[in-house]
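Figure 2 data, in text form.
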Amino acid sequence: MKDFDRTLEEYVSQRQKELIGRLSDLVRQPSVSSTGEGVSDCCDKIIARMEEIGIRAQRHEVTPYPIITGQLGEDPEKKTVFVYAHYDVQPTGDLSLWRSPPFEPTIRDGAIYGRGTADNKGPLSAHLCAAEFWLREFGELPVNVKFLFEGCEESNSAGLREFLEEHQELLRSDVTYFSDGSKNHNDTPIIALGVKGMLYVELRLTAMTRDLHSQYAPVLPSASWQMVELLGKLKKDGVVQVPGFYDDVLPITPEEKAIYDTLPDVSDDLRRTYNASPSYDPKLGYYGQLNGTPSFNLAGIASGYTGEGSATVLTSTAMAKLDMRLVANQDGEKILQSLKQYIKDLGYDNVEVICHGITPPSKTPLDTPFLEPVRRATERVFGKSMVYPNRPSTAPDYFWTSILKTPTIQVRWCDFDSDNHAPNEHLRLENYLRGIKLTATAFQEIGNL
């Protein structure tokens, strides 16, 4: 192992400029799935890169955007690792808030800035660079690797489920491994075995045919006030009032609670970063509540006049967007129907509930044999790690656990403040280079099984 670690360290150190250039080339190519900008061109760029390394790569024309698969090795004596990443990115948003253009990767203060640097082109590039390291230095990998890179993750992974169901034999593997997300706020990599699902809905309330002068407020309805009152009935004192919302929630197991209790207090880190302090049930603890309980978040609300100055308007319409992060065993479709019925039962016949997507939760058991080799690899590279039996965010893990039926392990090693989905997204170069070492080392550790 010491010889391997030394070889890997020298390889990355001597080729830093080349490895960083690989990521820069990828970030420079737009691939915004919500608009389609550059997605197809980015797909072709990645395939060319894979073929340059020596990976058999294939472009699959999936609606709305192509899926890339690739393979290295077919040795039946070796474990097969399924490596996932996505090459699409979020929209850039307000360009005036970016310190440098989002698709012109810029290095400053030891970090590379640009849309997709952390989410998820940095990890994608790291996986490919790790495979290239093995082939250049040793001629082969200690495991077989199957790659899948999708171009629609930021838009609910449209088309991926059908593709997986049709190609189960092509993608058959022993374990799914990927990196998509940030470290803990104390700068420790997170090894996650599960994810929350998500139900995303939009509420559209119509009170009248058009906005009016607010002189009519004493006698005509206000869409704004009706929406505020409705939201207060959906969630009160932190408790979701939708019937059955909590019915299927699986409580945190003693084993999970024991792991969460060992994790460090990040209250000071949160206050320093966000000027806000966490609140949680002391019986669950910060991590138990963050990772093990569902959420009912008001992501946005709009109604009436929002411009500069003042305007006296009686609003006719109001909109609210809600994202619900679901834990294992919760059914998004069941909750959606319950939400619709509850709003109707409350008397809001003027509210339309529009579903913008459902992602089921997913969980890999703590006793998977692949956890320990991945943990060893993480600690060899980063010096420390922490295990999340379940992570608080959402990813299409159920594709791997439910369709491909593989245990799934994710290592989150990007900057804890990488500003994913926001202006000035970035990734520290040190973390990117360590990400390359981690994937290479994880291949070795899993191969040793």
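Caption note: Residues 65 and 151 are 6 Å apart (CA to CA).
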